[in-house]
Amino acid sequence: MDTFLAGELNGTECQVYFFKGWTTYSHPVKPVEPISFSEALQRGSYFQARMCGSDDKQIFTMFEGVELPDVVPDTISKGASLFFYQAKSASDGSYEVGSQITANETLDVAGYYLGVGQGAKQLIILVRPKINLRYQYFYTDSGALQKVVIRNKLGKESVLNY
Question: Relative to the CA of 111, which of 7, 93, 131, 157 has its CA 20 to 30 Å away?
Answer without folding.
Answer: 157
